[in-house]
Amino acid sequence: MSTTKVYPKGMRIFAPRNGAPEFVIGEMVVNLKEFSDFIKSAEAQEYYSEYNGDKQLKFTLLKGDKGPYVTVNTYKPADQPAKIVHSTPVTVDDDLPF
């Protein structure tokens, strides 16, 4: 996973307003033009994943000193190592003493 944080453009998260109920953790505003441009960009497409045949872009909601904020989830699973296949045939010794 990259240690560089990728912030989605056009998406703003704000701490809850004064007097907001306890269950409110913040407010989010999306500028549709900026966000649309961002999700179409090569920067965002690098982090696309697929679920049930649909492309998706995952976000991580974090708690910071000034309230909640969001980043693009940049986690990519490591490639699994190839399975080792032995090409040498295995022989069975039928002369075992038991």
Give a structural overview.
The protein is α+β, with helices and mostly antiparallel strands and 98 residues long. The protein has one domain. The protein has two helices and six strands. A two-stranded antiparallel ribbon has the order 1-2. A hairpin with a 2-residue loop joins strand 3 (49-51) and strand 4 (54-56). The longest helix has 9 residues, at 32-40. It is elongated. The chain starts with 10 loop residues before the first strand and ends in a 26-residue tail after the last strand.
Helix and strand arrangement:
Blueprint: E1 11-14, E2 27-30, H1 32-40, H2 42-45, E3 49-51, E4 54-56, E5 59-64, E6 67-72
Antiparallel strand pairs: 1-2, 3-4, 5-6
